[in-house]
């Protein structure tokens, strides 16, 4: 049943089956990104060994967040396993919305990168297991920058990045200088925008959790963002998220892309180089930190089977199964999750992005600071943030499309955020 390269994964699956997983069906809500799509194919072996059927519900990022949040908060019971991230996991765990995770010793929890383990835990208890983790970095076409006589350095200035984008921008030949997220969503356009704001010295809230979106730092960051994409980005950028830009990049239409490090696993063009995220003088928070993780909604009748599947799907053996899979290989394994992955020689040989990715993850700074008095890089780890971030996301998309001025969009953002935080009781 299994090829030579999948023996380790097969052994792990067999052990799980011996542990008493009964034949049943697990309904799993996943984001429609490449690693999750690959998992559906790899997990056919899991079903073959255990008899557990897997019903996959694959959703676009924003839709997934909305549906999973609604179902989990109301105890809807639609899913046995859900994809969530660092914003939700500790909050939902503390609220009792998701089950605490406990795995066997062979899982090697200490192998999970500390940034991922900490971000998915509450008071030391893991509530979601990272399927893959990421920071953000610059992915650029070195052939284009070399031809234009420009370069992009680690932690470069935004001014130099804009100059490089201008130099390689060639829309007559179908190449755009910079492709960046513009689709509205607290985890879509606001993920990238927040890192730009951070690098300009801005923040979402002050120490009293009053929004500060009308600050000079926000104004400077958003004007820069709108100017960069309006002049050197593809048309319709306000509709582009991760998958849309990945498609553009692989069609040879993007000179540079600043986004999730995980994207490097799926780039198919030659000559890609990597650099640590730019900043405008404040490097703290210039690159984000995230994990797409797997959690079990509280009260799931299939919690035991769900836990066993999550343990397998986030294990070292799963990494081996992908690396040795005839359709995928070592360049397509889920990364940003386990330290041991970065020590695998086959992975090192296949993944030219590995060192840059790990450096970005290690340098991300989610801790609260005097400038940013909340946990989180591209989000704030408070229950109200998804509502605040979603409202502001719509305004930023309006500014990018030209429907509003930056100043009007920020004024509307400040008003909306202030109303939400007042209603939540942070201040009168």
Automatic annotation (TrEMBL):
Gene3D superfamilies: Periplasmic binding protein-like II
Major location category of this protein: periplasm
Signal sequence residues: 1-23
GO cellular component, one term: periplasmic space
UniProt key word Signal: yes
Swiss-Prot/TrEMBL keywords: Signal
Chain ranges passing through the membrane: none
Compartments (UniProt record): Periplasm
Family of this protein: Belongs to the bacterial solute-binding protein 1 family.
Designated name of the protein: Erythritol/L-threitol-binding protein
Gene designation: eltP
């Amino acid at each position: 049943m299994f090829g030579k390269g999948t023996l380790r994964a097969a052994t792990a699956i067999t052990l799980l089956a011996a542990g008493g997983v009964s034949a049943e069906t697990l309904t799993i809500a996943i984001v429609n990104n490449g690693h999750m799509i690959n998992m559906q194919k790899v997990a056919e072996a899991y079903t073959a060994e255990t008899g557990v059927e897997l019903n996959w519900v694959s959703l676009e990022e924003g839709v997934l967040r909305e549906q999973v949040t609604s179902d989990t908060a109301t105890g809807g019971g639609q899913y046995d396993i859900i994809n969530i991230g660092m914003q939700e996991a500790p909050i939902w765990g503390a609220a009792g919305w998701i089950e605490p995770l406990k795995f066997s010793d062979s899982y090697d929890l200490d192998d999970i990168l500390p940034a991922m383990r900490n971000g998915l835990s509450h008071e030391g208890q893991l509530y979601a297991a990272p399927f893959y983790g990421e920071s953000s970095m610059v992915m650029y076409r070195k052939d284009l920058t070399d031809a234009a006589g420009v370069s992009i350095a680690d932690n470069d200035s935004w001014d130099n990045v804009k100059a490089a984008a201008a130099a390689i921008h060639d829309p007559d030949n179908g190449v755009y200088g910079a492709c960046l997220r513009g689709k509205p969503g607290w985890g879509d356009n606001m993920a990238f925008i927040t890192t730009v704001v951070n690098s300009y010295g801005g923040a979402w809230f002050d120490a009293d959790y009053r929004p500060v979106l009308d600050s000079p730092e926000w104004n400077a960051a958003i004007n820069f963002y709108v100017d960069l994409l309006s002049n050197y980005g593809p048309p319709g950028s306000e509709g582009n998220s991760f998958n849309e830009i990945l498609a553009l990049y692989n069609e040879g239409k993007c000179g540079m892309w600043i986004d999730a490090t995980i994207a490097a696993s799926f780039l198919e063009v030659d000559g890609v180089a990597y650099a640590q995220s730019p900043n405008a003088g404040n490097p703290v928070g210039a690159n984000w930190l995230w994990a797409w993780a797997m959690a079990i909604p509280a009260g799931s009748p299939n919690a035991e089977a769900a836990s066993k599947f999550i343990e397998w799907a986030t294990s070292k053996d799963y990494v081996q199964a992908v690396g040795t899979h005839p359709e995928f290989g070592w360049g397509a394994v889920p990364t940003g999750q386990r330290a041991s992955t970065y020590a695998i020689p086959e992975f090192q040989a296949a993944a030219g992005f590995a060192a840059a990715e790990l450096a970005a993850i290690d340098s991300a700074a989610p801790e609260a600071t005097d400038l940013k008095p909340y946990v989180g890089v591209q989000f704030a780890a408070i229950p109200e943030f998804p509502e605040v971030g979603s409202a502001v996301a719509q305004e930023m998309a309006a500014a990018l499309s030209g429907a509003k001025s930056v100043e009007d969009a920020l004024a509307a953002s400040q008003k909306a955020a202030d109303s939400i935080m007042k209603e939540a009781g942070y201040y009168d």
